[in-house]
Predict the structure.
Amino acid sequence: MSDLTKNEILNALKKVDDSNFNKDFLILNSIKKFEIKSNNLSVDISITLPASADCKQLQSKFAEALKKEFTDLNKIDINIDAKVTTHQDSSKNAILPGVKNTIAVASGKGGVGKSTVAVNLAVALAKDGASVGLIDADVYGPSIPLMLGLNEKSKIYQDQKSMKMIPLTNYGIKVISIGLLIDDKAPVIWRGPMASGAVKQFMTDVDWGELDYLFFDLPPGTGDIQLTLVQTIPLTGAVIVTTPQEVSLIDARKALKMFTRVNVPILGVIENMSYFIAPDTGKKYDIFGTGGGSKMAVELDAPFLGGIPIDSRIRIGGDNGIPVLYDTPDSEYTAVFTQLSRNLAAQVHIRNLRGNSAAKMEISLDDDE
């Protein structure tokens, strides 16, 4: 068995079914080390798993799969490293030293449910045991405080070097928003540079502490705030939110291409309002079309993380400040967001395992791509 390869081990592991990880996201770099001595195999595997996962059970399943595939093996030792991997970049580490991964949630146009997706992804990852933060970067239309039931104002303290804001916490996530600093009835009448400066301060002047994931809920479009963000820190990646209809997909493509143009990896496309299930008949209706998000993902070579159905409970949860994962924890909609968040975590893991490269900003106004 001395000629056993990483690829053969990987193919055997991919035959394992377990609800806590997506086997399709296993790559060669997931196998950090393996050794064979006297027909005894030792394998070190790095994968992303929710904190609630039973690693011992998964270790047993992996060992059984390898034993079944390679019958000459006498003993198999599996070591699983399930820690959240870190996007290593000196520029990011200088600004957000305790934050492992930074993720932008974006859309080309408003009204597609981007903030709903950002909130529920963050809450789902926190519920799975990750440490999560959320920056409401939509300065002109801050909706995150309402969606998370936050009514207090953020406090400020003086550290050794400067003033620091303390993010508010609810549902296991740390949050900062312009809505936590000003009167919620007061409009933000700022020019672009002021709004962009506020987002920079949300990174540099907030005490985030240690986080596995920091989400940025961006405003619609491809303007000042988006450019400020990618110029300030190298992002781990971006998630693009769209609906199935073509009018939404047109703008979502622009958002996706903006991030690729500035070398921000696309972690996935999420299709919101994918379909509606009539509660009285159970019949499925494709109100805004069908398959647009997945087709766009294939067209632009981006992962498709999944679709979210239309349901009033998701909307009610946002209006009442109780995310659906807490409002109806046993519903199929909670299961949808949980799976989406795990798919996203897996894509972050893959991106980090494949290596970290410095982002280089390249923008051409004449490019009509």
The two ends are 51 Å apart (CA to CA). The chain has two domains: 6-81, 90-353. Residues 6-81 form a domain with the GMP Synthetase; Chain A, domain 3 fold (CATH 3.30.300.130). The CA atoms of residues 100 and 212 lie 5 Å apart.
